[in-house]
């Protein structure tokens, strides 16, 4: 069966933490370990609720500021430093735009309510035929329903789709519903794997 759609994750794939220094400096200034800071931001109860849209992203950041004992009006300073080492892979975005000439391209991201606005503001919403953001749909990876919804939105069968994600459990979740999936660890290697799959399923 030929491949008709390719889905990408956002964090860790399109946007990646290439430089750890800003986040490390922030952790040191707060008197905590890097891993503990990351856990508070991404794995707290409010982070989980924001991921499935039970609370707005702003509510999560307010709780995070409180947990870190930072001023309530310090959200902008915190996020700019926390994400200071993150880089958007513009070459990958150009590649996605190229893929759209032949395939449907989608996003499946476990993300908070601000992601769609961020992507639009950064000027690459046009790289996707459809974006599935967990906070908007109340579903998350690696649970099967979010993959089924993404497939339905692009009108393709699982066997006609490939998914790239940096978390192995999300890759396995996609494979469990019948999609082909690639564990994204190094951009060049992942895209080489994708090209092979596309060649084999013309």
Describe this structure in words.
With 202 residues, the chain is of the alpha/beta class. The strands form two sheets. It has a five-stranded parallel β-sheet, with helices on both faces. A two-stranded antiparallel sheet has the order 2-3. Strand 4, helix 7 and strand 5 form a beta-alpha-beta unit. Helix 2 crosses helix 3. It is globular, with a radius of gyration of 17 Å. The mean pLDDT is 97.
Can you tag this structure with a few keywords?
202 residues; alpha/beta; 5-stranded parallel β-sheet; two-stranded antiparallel sheet
Give a brief rundown of this model.
By secondary structure, this protein is an alpha/beta fold. The protein has eleven helices and seven strands. 50% of the residues lie in helices and 14% in strands.
Secondary-structure map with pairings?
Blueprint: E1 5-8, E2 15-17, H1 21-29, H2 34-43, H3 45-51, H4 57-67, H5 75-82, E3 86-88, H6 90-99, E4 104-109, H7 115-121, E5 130-133, H8 134-137, H9 144-154, E6 161-165, H10 168-176, E7 180-183, H11 187-200
Parallel strand pairs: 1-4, 1-6, 4-5, 6-7
Antiparallel strand pairs: 2-3
Helix pairs in contact: 2-3, 3-4
